[in-house]
Amino acid sequence: MSSIAKFSASSVAIAAGLGLSVGAAVTFLLGRKLNAMNKPKVWGKPPHPNWEPPQQLAIPDHIEESKMVALDPKVIGGKKCYPLIISAVVPRPVAFVSTVSKDGKQNLAPFSYFTAMHDPPCVILCICRAGHRGGGKKDTMENIDDTKEFTVNVLSEWFLEQANHTCGNYDPEVDEMALSGLTKLPSLKVKPPRVKESAVHMECKLKHKYETKGYDGEDTATVVVGEIVMFHVNEGVARKTPSGSTYVGLDELQPISRLGGNTYGRSRECFDLARPDRDWQKR
Protein backbone atom coordinates (compact mmCIF):
# COMPACT_ATOMS: atom_id res chain seq x y z
CA MET A 1 0.00 0.00 0.00
CA SER A 2 1.34 3.47 -0.93
CA SER A 3 2.06 6.09 1.71
CA ILE A 4 -0.87 8.17 0.43
CA ALA A 5 -3.25 5.21 0.63
CA LYS A 6 -2.08 4.39 4.17
CA PHE A 7 -2.52 8.03 5.18
CA SER A 8 -6.04 8.11 3.72
CA ALA A 9 -7.08 4.89 5.48
CA SER A 10 -5.76 6.07 8.84
CA SER A 11 -7.51 9.44 8.41
CA VAL A 12 -10.87 7.75 7.89
CA ALA A 13 -10.33 5.54 10.94
CA ILE A 14 -9.39 8.49 13.16
CA ALA A 15 -12.33 10.59 11.98
CA ALA A 16 -14.76 7.74 12.54
CA GLY A 17 -13.56 7.21 16.08
CA LEU A 18 -13.95 10.86 17.09
CA GLY A 19 -17.64 11.32 16.32
CA LEU A 20 -19.36 13.35 13.61
CA SER A 21 -18.47 16.97 14.47
CA VAL A 22 -14.90 16.45 15.63
CA GLY A 23 -14.39 13.79 13.01
CA ALA A 24 -15.49 16.18 10.25
CA ALA A 25 -12.98 18.78 11.39
CA VAL A 26 -10.19 16.23 11.54
CA THR A 27 -11.13 14.91 8.12
CA PHE A 28 -11.02 18.47 6.74
CA LEU A 29 -7.51 19.08 8.10
CA LEU A 30 -6.21 15.67 7.15
CA GLY A 31 -7.72 16.11 3.71
CA ARG A 32 -5.60 19.20 3.19
CA LYS A 33 -2.54 17.21 4.29
CA LEU A 34 -3.38 14.42 1.87
CA ASN A 35 -3.92 16.97 -0.87
CA ALA A 36 -0.49 18.45 -0.22
CA MET A 37 1.11 14.99 -0.45
CA ASN A 38 -0.52 14.33 -3.80
CA LYS A 39 0.08 17.67 -5.56
CA PRO A 40 2.83 20.21 -6.16
CA LYS A 41 3.46 22.31 -3.07
CA VAL A 42 1.24 25.39 -2.89
CA TRP A 43 0.81 25.94 0.83
CA GLY A 44 3.67 27.69 2.59
CA LYS A 45 4.34 29.62 5.78
CA PRO A 46 3.41 33.25 6.50
CA PRO A 47 6.26 35.71 5.86
CA HIS A 48 6.95 36.22 9.59
CA PRO A 49 5.68 33.13 11.46
CA ASN A 50 7.38 34.11 14.74
CA TRP A 51 6.04 37.67 14.91
CA GLU A 52 4.42 38.81 18.17
CA PRO A 53 2.66 42.16 18.72
CA PRO A 54 3.70 44.94 19.09
CA GLN A 55 7.04 43.97 17.54
CA GLN A 56 8.00 46.10 14.52
CA LEU A 57 8.89 44.32 11.31
CA ALA A 58 11.78 45.36 9.08
CA ILE A 59 10.95 47.56 6.08
CA PRO A 60 12.88 46.71 2.88
CA ASP A 61 15.74 49.12 2.14
CA HIS A 62 14.31 50.19 -1.22
CA ILE A 63 11.20 51.40 0.63
CA GLU A 64 12.77 52.67 3.85
CA GLU A 65 15.35 54.77 2.01
CA SER A 66 12.95 56.28 -0.53
CA LYS A 67 10.49 59.17 -0.35
CA MET A 68 6.75 59.13 -1.03
CA VAL A 69 5.61 60.89 -4.21
CA ALA A 70 2.29 62.74 -3.95
CA LEU A 71 0.14 62.49 -7.10
CA ASP A 72 -3.05 64.52 -7.39
CA PRO A 73 -5.48 62.67 -9.70
CA LYS A 74 -7.10 65.93 -10.77
CA VAL A 75 -3.71 67.16 -11.96
CA ILE A 76 -2.87 63.86 -13.66
CA GLY A 77 -6.32 63.56 -15.18
CA GLY A 78 -8.70 60.71 -14.50
CA LYS A 79 -8.02 58.76 -17.69
CA LYS A 80 -4.25 58.96 -17.18
CA CYS A 81 -4.64 57.38 -13.73
CA TYR A 82 -5.38 54.06 -15.42
CA PRO A 83 -1.84 52.58 -15.44
CA LEU A 84 -1.30 53.77 -11.87
CA ILE A 85 -4.44 52.27 -10.38
CA ILE A 86 -4.30 48.92 -12.19
CA SER A 87 -0.70 48.42 -11.10
CA ALA A 88 -1.33 49.53 -7.49
CA VAL A 89 -4.58 47.69 -6.75
CA VAL A 90 -3.31 44.15 -7.25
CA PRO A 91 -3.91 41.30 -7.56
CA ARG A 92 -7.45 41.53 -8.91
CA PRO A 93 -9.74 38.59 -9.70
CA VAL A 94 -11.06 38.39 -13.24
CA ALA A 95 -14.76 38.15 -14.05
CA PHE A 96 -15.37 36.44 -17.39
CA VAL A 97 -18.76 37.94 -18.27
CA SER A 98 -21.20 36.42 -20.73
CA THR A 99 -24.15 38.48 -22.00
CA VAL A 100 -26.71 38.35 -24.79
CA SER A 101 -28.08 41.39 -26.62
CA LYS A 102 -31.81 42.07 -26.90
CA ASP A 103 -31.71 40.61 -30.42
CA GLY A 104 -29.82 37.48 -29.35
CA LYS A 105 -26.18 38.30 -30.14
CA GLN A 106 -23.67 36.64 -27.79
CA ASN A 107 -20.88 38.63 -26.08
CA LEU A 108 -18.07 37.49 -23.81
CA ALA A 109 -15.41 39.67 -22.15
CA PRO A 110 -13.08 39.67 -19.09
CA PHE A 111 -13.23 42.44 -16.45
CA SER A 112 -10.81 42.87 -13.55
CA TYR A 113 -12.60 45.72 -11.77
CA PHE A 114 -14.44 42.97 -9.95
CA THR A 115 -15.37 41.87 -6.43
CA ALA A 116 -18.25 40.21 -4.55
CA MET A 117 -20.41 40.07 -1.41
CA HIS A 118 -22.38 37.23 0.15
CA ASP A 119 -25.76 38.19 1.72
CA PRO A 120 -27.47 38.26 -0.69
CA PRO A 121 -24.72 36.81 -2.85
CA CYS A 122 -23.77 39.46 -5.40
CA VAL A 123 -20.96 40.31 -7.78
CA ILE A 124 -19.81 43.88 -8.29
CA LEU A 125 -18.33 44.94 -11.63
CA CYS A 126 -17.07 48.27 -12.89
CA ILE A 127 -17.48 48.47 -16.66
CA CYS A 128 -15.65 51.43 -18.17
CA ARG A 129 -16.78 53.26 -21.28
CA ALA A 130 -15.24 52.21 -24.61
CA GLY A 131 -12.55 54.64 -25.70
CA HIS A 132 -12.54 53.19 -29.22
CA ARG A 133 -16.22 54.08 -29.50
CA GLY A 134 -15.88 57.70 -28.45
CA GLY A 135 -16.84 57.00 -24.85
CA GLY A 136 -19.90 54.91 -25.64
CA LYS A 137 -20.90 51.84 -23.66
CA LYS A 138 -19.18 48.51 -24.18
CA ASP A 139 -21.27 45.65 -25.57
CA THR A 140 -21.37 43.99 -22.14
CA MET A 141 -22.92 47.07 -20.53
CA GLU A 142 -25.35 47.63 -23.39
CA ASN A 143 -26.54 44.04 -23.05
CA ILE A 144 -26.92 44.22 -19.26
CA ASP A 145 -28.89 47.45 -19.63
CA ASP A 146 -31.20 45.82 -22.17
CA THR A 147 -31.71 42.35 -20.66
CA LYS A 148 -30.76 42.79 -16.94
CA GLU A 149 -28.94 39.42 -17.03
CA PHE A 150 -25.40 38.08 -17.28
CA THR A 151 -23.20 35.21 -16.14
CA VAL A 152 -19.80 35.44 -14.43
CA ASN A 153 -17.39 32.59 -15.12
CA VAL A 154 -14.29 32.28 -12.94
CA LEU A 155 -11.03 32.43 -14.85
CA SER A 156 -8.53 29.57 -14.42
CA GLU A 157 -5.09 28.91 -15.82
CA TRP A 158 -6.02 26.10 -18.20
CA PHE A 159 -8.01 28.35 -20.58
CA LEU A 160 -6.35 31.75 -20.03
CA GLU A 161 -5.15 32.26 -23.61
CA GLN A 162 -8.64 31.59 -24.95
CA ALA A 163 -10.18 33.99 -22.43
CA ASN A 164 -7.61 36.68 -23.23
CA HIS A 165 -8.49 36.43 -26.93
CA THR A 166 -12.03 37.63 -26.19
CA CYS A 167 -10.95 41.09 -24.99
CA GLY A 168 -10.21 42.58 -28.41
CA ASN A 169 -12.16 45.60 -29.65
CA TYR A 170 -14.44 43.47 -31.80
CA ASP A 171 -17.62 44.60 -33.54
CA PRO A 172 -20.91 43.97 -31.68
CA GLU A 173 -21.98 41.15 -33.97
CA VAL A 174 -18.85 39.07 -33.24
CA ASP A 175 -19.39 36.04 -31.00
CA GLU A 176 -16.25 36.03 -28.85
CA MET A 177 -17.00 32.61 -27.40
CA ALA A 178 -16.96 31.03 -30.85
CA LEU A 179 -14.03 33.18 -31.95
CA SER A 180 -11.84 31.90 -29.10
CA GLY A 181 -12.93 28.26 -29.32
CA LEU A 182 -14.76 28.22 -25.98
CA THR A 183 -17.87 26.13 -25.33
CA LYS A 184 -21.35 27.41 -24.47
CA LEU A 185 -23.45 25.81 -21.74
CA PRO A 186 -27.11 26.78 -21.24
CA SER A 187 -27.96 28.56 -18.00
CA LEU A 188 -30.89 27.61 -15.80
CA LYS A 189 -32.32 31.00 -14.76
CA VAL A 190 -30.89 33.53 -17.22
CA LYS A 191 -30.48 33.64 -21.00
CA PRO A 192 -26.72 34.31 -21.32
CA PRO A 193 -24.83 31.01 -21.60
CA ARG A 194 -22.07 29.84 -19.30
CA VAL A 195 -18.51 28.92 -20.31
CA LYS A 196 -17.94 25.16 -20.06
CA GLU A 197 -14.17 25.50 -19.64
CA SER A 198 -14.65 27.46 -16.39
CA ALA A 199 -15.03 25.48 -13.15
CA VAL A 200 -17.29 28.01 -11.36
CA HIS A 201 -20.24 29.84 -12.92
CA MET A 202 -22.61 32.43 -11.43
CA GLU A 203 -25.90 33.27 -13.10
CA CYS A 204 -26.72 36.90 -12.27
CA LYS A 205 -29.57 39.39 -12.55
CA LEU A 206 -29.04 43.13 -12.35
CA LYS A 207 -29.79 44.42 -8.85
CA HIS A 208 -28.33 47.95 -8.89
CA LYS A 209 -26.20 50.10 -11.15
CA TYR A 210 -24.46 53.41 -10.62
CA GLU A 211 -23.10 55.69 -13.34
CA THR A 212 -19.82 57.40 -12.52
CA LYS A 213 -18.79 60.74 -14.01
CA GLY A 214 -15.27 61.96 -14.74
CA TYR A 215 -13.80 65.37 -13.93
CA ASP A 216 -15.30 66.74 -17.14
CA GLY A 217 -18.81 65.71 -16.11
CA GLU A 218 -19.07 62.95 -18.72
CA ASP A 219 -20.04 59.36 -17.87
CA THR A 220 -16.89 57.23 -17.61
CA ALA A 221 -18.06 53.89 -16.18
CA THR A 222 -20.94 51.96 -14.65
CA VAL A 223 -20.75 50.11 -11.34
CA VAL A 224 -22.93 47.01 -11.71
CA VAL A 225 -24.28 44.97 -8.80
CA GLY A 226 -25.61 41.63 -9.96
CA GLU A 227 -27.44 39.27 -7.64
CA ILE A 228 -26.35 35.66 -8.06
CA VAL A 229 -29.43 33.56 -8.67
CA MET A 230 -27.64 30.28 -9.37
CA PHE A 231 -24.18 28.85 -8.72
CA HIS A 232 -22.59 26.04 -10.74
CA VAL A 233 -19.47 24.47 -9.20
CA ASN A 234 -17.58 21.68 -10.94
CA GLU A 235 -17.19 18.60 -8.73
CA GLY A 236 -13.46 18.68 -9.47
CA VAL A 237 -13.07 21.90 -7.42
CA ALA A 238 -15.98 21.57 -4.96
CA ARG A 239 -15.04 20.95 -1.35
CA LYS A 240 -16.89 20.90 2.01
CA THR A 241 -16.09 22.71 5.25
CA PRO A 242 -16.46 20.80 8.55
CA SER A 243 -19.96 22.28 8.91
CA GLY A 244 -20.98 21.09 5.44
CA SER A 245 -20.78 24.35 3.46
CA THR A 246 -19.50 24.17 -0.10
CA TYR A 247 -16.30 25.99 -0.96
CA VAL A 248 -13.90 25.97 -3.90
CA GLY A 249 -10.51 24.28 -3.58
CA LEU A 250 -7.67 26.67 -4.41
CA ASP A 251 -5.26 23.99 -5.63
CA GLU A 252 -7.82 22.62 -8.07
CA LEU A 253 -9.20 25.97 -9.28
CA GLN A 254 -5.82 27.35 -10.39
CA PRO A 255 -7.19 30.92 -10.34
CA ILE A 256 -5.60 33.66 -12.41
CA SER A 257 -5.36 37.27 -11.23
CA ARG A 258 -4.78 40.50 -13.15
CA LEU A 259 -1.84 42.74 -12.36
CA GLY A 260 -0.67 45.93 -14.10
CA GLY A 261 -0.41 46.28 -17.87
CA ASN A 262 -0.72 42.95 -19.67
CA THR A 263 0.59 41.01 -16.67
CA TYR A 264 -1.32 38.16 -15.00
CA GLY A 265 -0.51 36.25 -11.82
CA ARG A 266 -0.76 32.66 -10.62
CA SER A 267 -1.59 31.69 -7.02
CA ARG A 268 1.52 29.56 -6.58
CA GLU A 269 2.13 29.91 -2.84
CA CYS A 270 -0.45 30.54 -0.14
CA PHE A 271 -0.53 30.47 3.63
CA ASP A 272 -3.04 30.64 6.47
CA LEU A 273 -2.88 33.56 8.92
CA ALA A 274 -5.42 33.54 11.75
CA ARG A 275 -7.20 36.70 12.90
CA PRO A 276 -6.35 38.07 16.35
CA ASP A 277 -8.94 37.20 18.97
CA ARG A 278 -10.84 39.99 20.76
CA ASP A 279 -8.82 39.51 23.95
CA TRP A 280 -5.89 41.32 22.35
CA GLN A 281 -7.67 44.65 22.84
CA LYS A 282 -7.57 44.08 26.62
CA ARG A 283 -3.84 43.37 26.79
TrEMBL record:
<feature type="transmembrane region" description="Helical">
    <location>
        <begin position="12"/>
        <end position="31"/>
    </location>
</feature>
<feature type="domain" description="Flavin reductase like">
    <location>
        <begin position="87"/>
        <end position="247"/>
    </location>
</feature>
<keyword id="KW-1133">Transmembrane helix</keyword>
<dbReference type="InterPro" id="IPR002563">
    <property type="entry name" value="Flavin_Rdtase-like_dom"/>
</dbReference>
<dbReference type="InterPro" id="IPR012349">
    <property type="entry name" value="Split_barrel_FMN-bd"/>
</dbReference>
<keyword id="KW-0288">FMN</keyword>
<comment type="similarity">
    <text>Belongs to the flavoredoxin family.</text>
</comment>
<keyword id="KW-0285">Flavoprotein</keyword>
<keyword id="KW-0472">Membrane</keyword>
<keyword id="KW-0812">Transmembrane</keyword>
<dbReference type="GO" id="GO:0010181">
    <property type="term" value="F:FMN binding"/>
</dbReference>
<protein>
    <recommendedName>
        <fullName>Flavin reductase like domain-containing protein</fullName>
    </recommendedName>
</protein>
<dbReference type="Pfam" id="PF01613">
    <property type="entry name" value="Flavin_Reduct"/>
</dbReference>
